[in-house]
Amino acid sequence: MNKRFIVVGVVLGLIVVAAVLIGSPMFGGFDAMR
Predict the structure, then answer these.
(1) What is the DSSP string of 2-32?
(2) pLDDT tens per residue across span 3-28
């Protein structure tokens, strides 16, 4: 596997985790952004 592919996978994974945390009602991220 190419390192680039692994890096892209990790970055996408972090983005998904960040989106879930920000979108979680516990953090109230989306409500604060609007």
Answers:
(1) -HHHHHHHHHHHHHHHHHHHHHSTTTTHHHH
(2) 999 999 999 999 888 777 766 666 55
